[in-house]
Amino acid sequence: MTEDIVVSVDWLADHLDEVRVVDVRDAWEFDGIGHVPGAVNVPFDRFRRGEGDEGMLPGAERWTALMEEAGIETDDTVVAYDDEHGVFAARFLVTALLYGHENLHLLNGDFSAWSREHETATEAPSVEPSTYAVREPAASPLVDFGTVRAALDSDAVIVDTREEWEYEEGHLPGAVQLDWRELVDAETRGLKPDAELESILGERGITPDRRIVLYCNTARRISHTYVALRHLGYDDVDFYEGSLTEWRERGGPLAGSEVE
User: Which PROSITE patterns does the entry link to (predicted)?
Assistant: First the structure.
């Protein structure tokens, strides 16, 4: 098995019988459009907390129930995919990581890349419910409001992964703007080549020797950037789960046109 958090469609095809594949698209897409053979469906909205609290984790009890219903065990090697360049699948993987799951991978290029080269299925697999145990992760990238507030006065690189117009309206003081989609290749639908990624990141000062703090609105977009940085070997990456939803609620300082 590979240690890279990002895997190709060919790698998945070669290891399909050795991993658990999770499709996080809506059920109608999973059933109607087709899916990777053997994949189980865990739609994105099922592992997000309810309306008004979209940026928060689902809770250990709910996560355990989802995994057991999907037949996933704690030590399974999991490969997740969507059809949105990996941003929803990445959120699934980061959620799993924060609940102590270790063997996690993102399918590079999403379902479209798979369906161009490999067979798909329309019938859902027969799943035997599993026993799943949430664990404390060996190391967690999660940081809270206070930690991020303190980071504003440090040499950390604060990274806003939203679109430019969102950034211009309001962002954390000193943050650099990096739309997560800048790391995606429009043709392959996966990550751009490593050298290109490193160039894009380097231009923003987002380098492996720096402490990186990621935020967006509700922690979905930073999930993709977090996976991309892990793929490139970045070790010091903080994940602000509360992101701007919590930051605004707690009166954190902002810069931008809407606060000038």
Answer: RHODANESE_1, RHODANESE_3, SDH_CYT_2
Q: What structural domains and CATH numbers belong to the chain?
A: 6-117 (3.40.250.10), 142-259 (3.40.250.10)
Contact 108, 8 (CB under 8 A): yes
Strand partners, 212: 157, 237
Q: What is the pTM of this model?
A: 0.95
Q: Are 40 and 71 in contact (CB under 8 A)?
A: yes
In what side-by-side order are the strands of the sheet with 142-143? 142-143, 237-240, 212-215, 157-160, 176-177
Q: Which residues of the chain form beta strands (DSSP E)?
A: 6-7, 20-23, 40-41, 78-81, 104-107, 142-143, 157-160, 176-177, 212-215, 237-240
Tell me the Cα Rg of the chain: 18
Q: Chain centroid to CA 206: how far?
A: 18
pLDDT tens by residue, 13-51: 999 999 999 999 999 999 999 999 999 999 998 998 754
Residues 143-173 pLDDT 10s: 999 999 999 999 999 999 999 999 999 999 9
Cα 113 to the chain's mean position, in Å? 18
Q: Cα separation of 221 and 159, whole Å?
A: 11
Q: What is the C-alpha separation between 191 and 89, in angstroms, rounded?
A: 13
Which token pair is 48? 């997000």
Distance CA 26, CA 215 (A): 25
Asked if residue 88 lies in contact with residue 43, where contact means CB atoms within 8 angstroms, the answer is no
